[in-house]
Specification:
By secondary structure, this protein is an alpha/beta fold. The chain contains eleven helices and 13 strands. Strand 4, helix 3 and strand 5 form a beta-alpha-beta unit.
């Protein structure tokens, strides 16, 4: 079997290529670069020149193009733009138009068996209490371009199901660093808080109580990048292709509450500050900005969401092995 991966040169994508190279005859990685040094040890990888923002996606033409497309059994669309500094138009082009173009490409693959779309739990409405696997909630208000464009992209995937191949939507949680090495590609998600604590720990040691605008019961739906890639690989390997559409939530078990996470940060920094929860206010937003925490993080600080994992637990019982307690010391940079 042959698989085509988009986003294989990204942080999660690199782990996916490593995992899937052990299970597929050939792993084709769509890339604007024809070769990357980090994959030189993978013998069954081939780079395919292309760009998801172009309608045709792949630059092959004529007979070579058709023969290549006919050789693909599985497509994994993991490419996305996640950059809080990016413009809405750039994010829309990559996440929405790019997904539309991939769906268009799938129609030319005669032997395609399955399509895996990497969505995100950010499609959930933080003002509700439960995100079901099999449904995309009705939502019109968004606080950032990433969640909005990924929502629209998943909506397009759901509206364009095919009888020729099965579709799987995978919604990872907030991806954090490697659960073994701690490797992380950039400051993101909980790392904003870790960075702020490292910077202001000396001040916090003298503050016994700090009013903080947050929901102490809000859950941090995190997942280490290596575990996320392994779980995606297992889902692909086990797929019996019997159901036309399935959705999975890849979120670690025992996800910490925000209060638990802040207390662990205290332990990391050796402080005993108590964070007194207050309602959201403008002063709090200004304080976050001063600490270097972007406003896009706010929905997770007040979210009441929990995540349905019915199909995930049925098809991927190993998800129970991913627990916050088992990798938090790595997350906080402690041996």
């Amino acid at each position: 079997m042959n698989i085509l991966i988009t986003g294989g040169t990204g942080f999660l994508g690199g782990y996916l290529v490593e995992e899937l190279s052990r299970k597929f005859k050939t792993v084709y990685v769509l890339s604007r670069q024809i070769h990357l040094e980090k994959f030189k040890h993978v013998t069954n990888i081939e780079f395919v020149s292309g760009d998801i923002t172009n309608l045709e996606v792949i630059t092959f033409e004529g007979k070579v193009r058709s023969e290549f497309l006919d050789s693909i059994d599985v497509v994994l669309h993991a490419a996305a733009l996640y950059d809080l500094a990016a413009t809405h138009s750039a994010t829309f082009l990559q996440n929405v138009v790019g997904t539309q173009n991939i769906l268009h490409l799938l129609n030319s693959m005669k032997n395609l068996k399955s399509f895996y779309y990497i969505s995100t739990i950010a499609v959930g409405d933080p003002d509700t209490f439960f995100l079901e696997e099999d449904q995309l909630p009705k939502r019109s208000n968004f606080t950032d371009a990433y969640s909005e464009t990924k929502y629209l992209a998943e909506q397009i995937v759901r509206e364009n199901l095919s009888k020729k191949y099965v579709t799987r939507i995978i919604r990872p949680g907030i991806i954090v660093g490697d659960s073994v090495t701690g490797k992380m590609s950039k400051v993101d998600g909980p790392y904003y808080f870790i960075k702020a604590f490292n910077k202001y720990a000396k001040f916090l040691k003298y503050a016994s109580i700090i009013p903080l605008s947050f929901n102490p019961r809000a859950k941090l739906p995190i997942i280490p990048v290596d575990q996320c890639a392994r779980f995606i690989s297992l889902l692909i390997e086990r797929d019996e292709l019997q159901v036309n559409l399935k959705t999975y939530h890849l979120v670690s078990s025992e996800s910490p509450s925000l209060e638990e996470f802040l207390n662990d940060l205290n332990d990391m920094a050796g402080i005993k500050t108590h964070y007194f929860a207050v309602k959201q206010n403008k002063l709090h937003n200004s304080l976050l900005k001063l600490l270097g925490i972007p406003e896009e993080v706010l929905p997770f600080m007040f979210s009441r969401l929990s995540y349905d994992k019915t199909s995930t637990l049925e098809d991927l019982p190993e998800i129970k092995e991913s627990t916050y307690s088992s990798f938090k010391h790595i997350l906080f940079g402690k041996s």
